[in-house]
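User: Quick one: structure for sequence A, then sequence B.

Assistant: Sequence A:
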Amino acid sequence: MSNGADAVLGTHLQELRRGSVVLASLLACRRPRYGYALLTTLAEAGISTEANTLYPLLRRLEGQGLLASTWRTEAPRPRKYYETTALGAETAERLHSEWQALGGAYTDLRKAET
């Protein structure tokens, strides 16, 4: 690919990943996680994201009632843990169903063109 094509692809991959980080965060936070641990969990699952993207997203999801947070101060460094709420779990299930349906539709479109 040329540099121009790489740049265009990079832009579209970033947009695709941006939407998937919401679903991934809701799924990963079914068990309480603090920010850095969530970054690591997502990266290990193949969903890399930057801290400057994730932390505002976590605050937004908390503001929407999809995540709840608690401070844990028993360790030397206090950490804010996030956990998926009931509304967040319901939203994650619906987003996951939509993700699967879209994946099937893309596969069908790809097969139809070959």
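Sequence B:
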Amino acid sequence: MRLMSLMYCGALALGAAMSVFACAASGGERLELPSPDSGDGVTVIEDAGAALSDAPASEPDSSPIDGPTCSDAGWCRTELPDVDLVLKDIWPVGAHAFAVADSPTLGVKVLEWSDTSSSWQYIDDSSQNSIGVGKYAGRLWAPNENEVYYGVAPGYIYHGTRPVPPATTWGWIRHRLGGNSGAGNVDPQAGYPSYWKIGANYPALGVWGTSASDVYAWFSNTIYHWTSVDGGAPEWVPEYVADDASAATERMFFLAAAGTGPDGIWFAGARSRPSAACAVIVRKTSAGYERIADGALTNDFARCGPRAGSLLISGGEEGWLTDIQATSADRILGLKGGRDLVRISAAGDGYEVRVSPVPLRVSPRPLSSFWRAPDSMWLAGWGIVVRATESVWDGGAYEVSTISMAGAPLARPLYQVRGTSDTKLWAIGERNALHKTTP
């Protein structure tokens, strides 16, 4: 299946004000910008930050952080540019970290952290909050310190690049996903389904790649690859659609990706009904796409049962497979049902699964994020960070890595934990970006 995208640019509306900018298509021709709601296509915004300099800016919250700034476990608060930011995803790379956030006053925002300045700053161009865009933030990924991708409703992928000095404003290109039988045939909430395990919506929209030249995106039940068709300009080509829902109330979603190279990529998702779900795994190798894991639901409240020809990822908690990470070409780890750590490995001609539930005494609430460092595994949820090692597969213990400061708990959700090592970690969420640089 191919997506023939239209390469054009459009007029952006920022709030009630209408501003027209110049932009360049992939071939270099300068075109006038159409409306972001005009249909599938691409918007290229060159140096748009300068063009938006007359737009009203939000006053940053410049007041210092009160009280202790670090927990006993070394989690330290960093100062955000505005107090009402809800950070949803983060991707550290080198001496930088990129984050995407929602705000009730600012909409979707993209931030960059610099180790050199020990500070956050906005790098987006604000076009993601024009009319018809920005209802929710998707997942974010960065191949290097000078390039970043993120998803934003209703099915857009933004690609930002850092300009060559002395220019300071990032350049942004926007493409809309869709135009096939998977994404785009339902309302924009197709990319923001409700996940009953965590009592909130969860983005089925994101981007990930094996390198700067090999990038994938997902929206609803469709996986896209940034590639050329018949020698033409690169575009988001749909390569896999999960379109075998077995009931009117059943939906298929992709939620995460991981891998070690172009011929070993895993995509995680779910076969979901209102209060029931089966974890889904699709793997891409040099031979193509193969659905590794799936399950069968008999009604909206059923447990996940076996499906012929597919691996069943069972365990103490059924639900979506929301986070995965590849530890080798043939093995991934992930978080299922907000409770179970799972390890899926290729074994001979098949696959094997091991499940380790996080005890309720460690985290009474479901967890929302998982990341594996070289020596430890980390999970985050409502006001909690949990640490474990590979020994959990053999009965090892989980422990809380305290984020309390001066004895006061952090009574806010954390949506993502991620890092580059055991001594360079982030845990981000509602009004918080916690940084850990100690063992």
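The longest strand covers residues 251-261. Residues 63 and 79 are 9 Å apart (CA to CA).

User: Thanks, that's what I needed.
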